[in-house]
Amino acid sequence: MPKWKIIPPTMEDLDQHYCHPMIVNLFRIMKAVYGLLDPDNEPSGIHEGKHAATFGYEDSEETSESSVLSSLFIHFGLSSQTSPRFAIVLPSMQIEDLTQRSRIPLPPELVPTVTDIRDFTVARSQFTPDPNDPEYDIYDFEYEIYEPESYPAGQVWERVQMQKFHELLLNAGIIESTHPRLNHRCDMCLLDLLQCKVCLKVMCPTRNCVAFPLSCMRWRPCAAGHRCWYGDICIDCVVGGTTCLCQESWTCDLCTEKGGFFLRCLRCDRPFCGRCSYLVGCRGCRASNLCHDCAEEAPKDETKEKYVELVGPCTKCNSPVCKPCATAAAAGTSVHIAVVSFSTGCDCIKSYK
């Protein structure tokens, strides 16, 4: 029986810089299920490791859509448990508590998400790798093992999403066939399609192209930029993570865990980006003062104790730097700090040996 434990993601997924295309869908359903039936164990994030989400279908000689759907299962549970706690019953669109032996209707807002998983499973059951693909050798056909599963899963869902994009153009009367002129490019303006790194949905990025208004996708880049494993991510896949106080910057779960992208008030621990006016801190060591709210509320001795003296700002990047970092940078003895020269500007972040 083909089955895949998608949450928590495997190290192979993270090492390859892509994730299973159903990971956000499964997490969104799992979070809602626990929120309704077991709120004390509601998951905080995809990568928190406490929960597991598994889904699959019965492998048989008959690979028709009906046979796959009749055996499709979606299970949720805690990683410490040997048996799943909840199941999604697709024919009746219900949530089953496997411990209490009770069922409730699936919330209407989750039906499209479950439908996506259903569509993926049918397409995955019919998937045949392309022998011309450079990654073809990763398949071990003798044992029918695919490592990592995210790769063929990504291929499957990418094909489905490309097909949906061209069906949009066909239904709008813009094209006459769903066969693409150039793969991964818009049929009209021929520019590369914008694709979400997680759900793999695509849209034309060119605002003056006739294909642009057909998609209602919006995008939310991780503040970590090229250092983020998600890369481009649509706003529908923004699950968890951290958003700064001014709502302008967001980091995904993994980049939030790595830290270093937001300043945090030493008293309330709220995150602030460089645009937030409520908190300023050192560009180099990330040391920060109390935010404006805490500075007004905290006793004077606490404010004085946690005060960081900032010098600058730098004439090049306009970032403040604390006095110890400025001194160390001038001496060339510190690692990964802001290099400050108030007359000629700075190199911002620079490494020293």
Automatic annotation (TrEMBL):
Protein name stated in the entry: Uncharacterized protein
Species of provenance: Suillus luteus UH-Slu-Lm8-n1
Highest taxon above the source species: Eukaryota
